[in-house]
Specification:
Radius of gyration: 20 Å
Number of strands: 17
CATH topology of the largest domain: QueA-like
Distance between the termini: 25 Å
């Protein structure tokens, strides 16, 4: 399979630059994964496709203000860090801009000196391992000096930072939002539960590898980034009870899907754990746990559109994307949603 097989044409003006005023008023393209038929709804209509006994699985990670701006301690040259992943203690993997000349031992200061960093090592793809130095609570310092690391295709300023968080975001650690969940409101989640649909939360901390293009011509040569995740005993029990009771597991987003498929056994049952996953899902993959998928529209030639194509037929998915373009749906993080059932 070639990366080019997952390409489609997207007019730039369809890339959503800001969230809608009401989260659940976005559009919803419903696709039958077997027949490929399409139905146009609004996101509130998701309730029409959820039944008593189903279980909705949500990723409750919280985006941290991972973009910080500072200067080199020796020269005063400007620098930008994007925190990707906590390695251990105060050591993080980061992206630097400009970073080509930043060698181990180089030191940087942020926020007038309330945060300092020293480069320890150059790692894969030119990223750096750095050790931060500070007094107080690291998360509070980030809240004071950091900004949201919006994807590169969003060029307009985000006025309300909370709109790049789900309403149920809980565990800090992501460099990007699990955007399929942005459409849910507290009221909509309440209606889900009132209908007898279970809600289970998993945690996967999303890295910026999500937005990295697949550079390999053959997708099998692509190296998938690893992301840390956890699923609790309570969540696993709720998911398994729905599965064994004949309900569907409705995964909200590709991140929840990657968690579920990473821990599912041959019977489709999941098991509590906390580890990392680098699972790469593409056409030919046999899903064990997930029965329906709620997701946004993804970048051409990305691992995410490959995952979605694996859940149905690639031809159906690309046709759905063509129709979404024709109907002027909004694309990517702040865009509209799909339900594949």
């Amino acid at each position: 399979m070639k990366t080019l097989d997952f390409n489609y044409t997207l007019p730039p003006e369809l890339i959503a630059q800001h969230p809608l005023e009401c989260r659940s008023s976005s559009r919803l393209l419903v696709m039958d994964k077997v027949e490929g038929t399409l139905t146009h709804k609004t996101f509130e209509g998701i309730l029409d496709y959820l039944s008593q006994g189903d279980c909705l699985v949500l990723n409750d990670t919280k985006v941290i203000p991972a973009r910080i701006f500072g200067e080199k301690e020796s020269s005063g040259g400007q620098i930008e860090f994007v925190l990707l992943k906590k390695i251990q203690g105060d050591v993080w993997e980061v992206i630097l801009k400009p970073g080509r000349k930043a060698k181990p031992g180089a030191r940087f200061v942020f926020g007038g000196g309330i945060l300092k960093a020293e480069i320890l090592e150059i790692v894969a793809e030119g990223n750096r391992l750095v050790r931060f130095e500070y007094e107080g609570v690291f998360e509070e310092i980030l809240d004071a000096i950091g900004t949201m690391p919006l994807p590169p295709y969003i060029t307009e300023k985000l006025v309300d930072q909370t709109r790049y968080q789900t309403v149920y975001a809980l565990h800090k650690g992501s460099a990007a939002a699990p955007t399929a969940g942005l459409h849910f409101t507290p009221e909509l989640l309440r209606q889900v539960e009132e209908k007898g649909i279970g809600i289970a939360y998993v945690t996967l901390h999303v890295g910026l590898g999500t937005f990295r293009p697949v550079k390999a011509i053959n997708i099998l040569e692509h190296h998938m980034h690893a992301e840390s995740f956890s699923i609790s005993e309570e969540a696993a029990a709720k998911i398994n009870a729905a599965k064994q009771g004949g309900g569907r597991i409705v995964s909200v987003g590709t991140t929840s899907t990657r968690v579920l498929e990473s821990v599912a056994d041959q019977a489709g049952l999941v098991h509590a754990c906390a580890t990392e996953t680098s699972i790469f899902i593409y056409p030919g993959y046999q899903f064990r746990c997930v029965d329906a998928l709620i997701t946004n529209f993804h970048l051409p030639e990305s691992t995410l559109i490959m995952l979605v194509s694996a859940f149905s037929k690639k031809e159906f998915v690309l046709h759905a994307y063509e129709q979404a373009v024709k109907e002027r749906y909004r694309f990517f993080s702040f865009g509209d949603a799909m339900l594949i059932k």
